Amino acid sequence: MSETQSNSRQVILDRLKGCVVDAPELPTIDPARVVQFDDRLQQFQETLASVGGEAHLVDTPSEIHEKLQAIEVFQSARRIASTVPEAVTATVDLATIDDPHALSTLDWTIVRGEFGVAENGAIWIDGKTLPHRVMIFIAQYLAIVISRSDLLNNMHEAYARIGAPGPGFGVFVSGPSKTADIEQSLVLGAHGCRKLQVFLLP
Amino acid sequence: MTVALFIPCYIDQFFPDVAIATLTLLERLGVEVEYPAGQTCCGQPMANTGCDADTAPVAKQWVKRFASYDAVVCPSGSCTSMIRNHYADYFGPNDTEFQHLRENTYELCEFVVDRLGVRSIPGTFNRPVSIHSSCHGLRELRLGKCSENMTPREDKMRMLLESLDGIEIKPITRVDECCGFGGTFAVAERETSVAMGIDRVTDHITSGSEVMIAGDMSCLMHMGGLIRRRNMPMSVKHIAEVLAEAMQSDSSGSDRSAPAIASR
Amino acid sequence: MTSLTSTLPIVDHPNAAREFVTNEPRSHWHDDSLWFVRSKRDKQAQSIPEWEYLREQASTIKTHTIAKLPEYLQQFEANATRLGAVVHWAADAEEHNRIVLDLLRRNDTLRIVKSKSMLTEECGLNEYLIESGIEVVDTDLGERIVQLRGETPSHIVLPAIHIKKEEVGDTFHEHLGTRAGESDPQVLTEAARGHLRGKFLSGEVGITGVNFAIADTGGLVVCTNEGNADLGVSLPRIHIACMGIEKLVPRFQDLSVFTRLLARSATGQPITSYTSHFHGPRDENSELHIVLVDNGRSKIRDSKTFRDSLHCIRCGACMNTCPVYRRSGGHSYRATVPGPIGSVLGPAKNAKAHKSLPFACSLCGSCTDVCPVKIPLHHQLLAWRKVLVGKRLVAWNKRMAMKAASFLFRNPPLFAAAGYLGRVALKVLPKSLAHNRFNTWAKDRDLPEPPKKSFHEWYAKNRPSGSQTVSREEQS
């Protein structure tokens, strides 16, 4: 760190400390006041559909494979990364890849999500489960597998469940990559996945 | 209860009929109303231009004029908001005259509904109408629920209008968008102001309404001016005119000479 | 009143807005697009029974954070450093740019990919880096469109909201080789996807903004719909995150409040497609640099009146709801951040340059009610007017007109006489003269029909026993 930088640190902190401001107490969210759903599964499915994702109720990992096989762009996929081998066998061995750029031609990625959030259709993916974090962003298509018993009502429950995050990466994914930057016309598949399949196991 | 009528400067000068209708309405509702002499303006034009030094003496004069009344009623949400929400800059927190007026100055519909407890008006108004919710009445006085804010509130003007016989309130698409008057904004930002005004008028006409009703004459002066210039098929009326006219039609029909409702 | 206001001078925003707002089809199209976004926002807000409760919580958290900002910045720095990030401090835009360039030079970087960051726009980072020979690629589709067109964003969330699809088609035809005349958003987006994939793969450093930084964990949150921030920082070894010092939240748990409000307010989505949490660099071979930028924020914090404007989470809802912004377009503000919040922040940066912005507002108050962190925007715009008058930055004739009005209103007999003269003049003058070209009001609007009598004249005649002649005040 150069001398001027460390100097700016002091300058900024001194400026801020020069003006003492009374602070109100930090509030605590009252769980009784935030939205709860009678049927979290139904709410999650509806919200996911509204953000452009597709939900599938499945009972076994092999059913996931069957459902994927019915999707044309999966049938024709050549490069598949998977961290859910019981459902989909990978064609790309992630363990042998050092440089994430090598994943630029991924067709499909199938990963596990930790839990889903009914109010917004988001799924929390813990970066520790990903050999390369880019795999969920660079693949043309993405599938996420979660358990129906891991559906929470809202983001307050979601952050409480994550607790204290350790070093690393984590992301809420809600639907496929999208943009409406041209005349507010919604287009799915801006830079990341073109479609998102979510498989809900028991 | 001695109630003072505060008639904003431009209503006094350009729209005396609105002031007369306000007085008539209140009298018909059994309110003893006085119109204190020597009143002019609340000072809002200067305040909204940022000229505090020019506003302060006008505000002080206003408070002096009205301090001895139990309540003040004003047929303008904007001017009422000036007193309730913006006068504090010009008075100390312990100024009892100002604090009294801050708590007891009402916009007309607010006075009728909240202070008199009157929730329906006996009368008839046989026209398809639409409501323009003036911004300061809506967002500064909270006379109704605004579309951005999720707090439920009852809409006082709508409630009174809906109580009239024969009235048909047409729905507009943007229920509470600004008309673009905005005081000096109307002149300083002429093009934008005019575009906003025409959009509002068009929305009201498209709804099938023949009369646009508002609680603020300033909005109606702006939109009325646009309507007349373009010969658009719409007229504008202040809520006081509609209610007074409706009550007139009712009392002439039913031979009721006494005030319909006594004040609390 | 009309005769007084008709002499007001023409100021900058109205001039800058004129071309856009008087192009009626375009202005209406722009207005409708943004109203559509606002309507989507309303639906989302309505779907959350505790919406107003959430706004209240968000506001309190931000008030608390800004008050204790020096403590939280140090806590954040300590935690981020512990996670392996390098924290830099920049007092102003110039220092911010220099820090970023130094980092790039140290790593022999020639090509960077950027995701949307209003802070880097504010600092003019792109121009600075390009002048230094770096290839800078904005990867957000809207930002890429304005970058290729040599423009600036006209909205902080929807940078290309002012551009028609046919114009995007022309730009892409020229730069990306799409078919001439192509204007299908699907096709154009696909072309941009292909074009930017190449840029992502060749980017040597990824630069992002920051939506939230968490004091108690040292982490960062970046929200996008396109996934461009994630692609941009998941491929190269180095991630530089640039943030204003006001972006902090105290606790990880506080993110729940803000992630619920941000996208709903911004675009009417329940949450952005990607809400990414970065705690330290990707791995032991990677670097995460965080640049904390003051650039005038501490000065705003010093002001009791304007401090709350630092609550802003850059959702853009105040722009979408502002009837002036929707009709005059974002570029009419000539500021990095346009619309209501920009009209508060602009004068804080340079009062003289942005003196017309607090007046580019009808004081309708919609921005205040739509703001997810409850910044009293229209009250702050009014407060700015007072400051500008105090600094004598409001035109002399405007101030004199208000002085004259004040004088008139303090002298009831004079007021009555002036009103009388005004009404008589309106009556006796031919319409062409009363509506002359110097009367700005009357260019588009008829003046009211002048009544014979003012109300106070009517009252004196019709209620002779009333208090018109003897006021209560004089009685007592």
UniProtKB/TrEMBL annotation, chain A:
**Which range is the signal sequence, renumbered to this chain?**
none
Q: Where is the STAS domain?
A: 1-91
Instruction: Write down the Pfam families for this protein, in alphabetical order.
Output: LUD_dom (PF02589)
Q: Where are the transmembrane segments?
A: none
InterPro entries hit by this protein: FTHF_cligase-like_sf, LUD_dom, NagB/RpiA_transferase-like, STAS_dom
State what protein this is by name. Answer: Protein containing DUF162
Q: What is the lineage of its organism?
A: Bacteria, Pseudomonadati, Planctomycetota, Planctomycetia, Pirellulales
TrEMBL record, chain B:
Q: What is this protein called?
A: Cysteine-rich domain-containing protein
- One Gene Ontology cellular component annotation? cytosol
Cysteine-rich domain residues: 3-84, 129-223
Pfam families found in the cross-reference section: CCG (PF02754)
One Gene Ontology MF term? oxidoreductase activity
What is the originating organism of this protein? Rhodopirellula europaea 6C
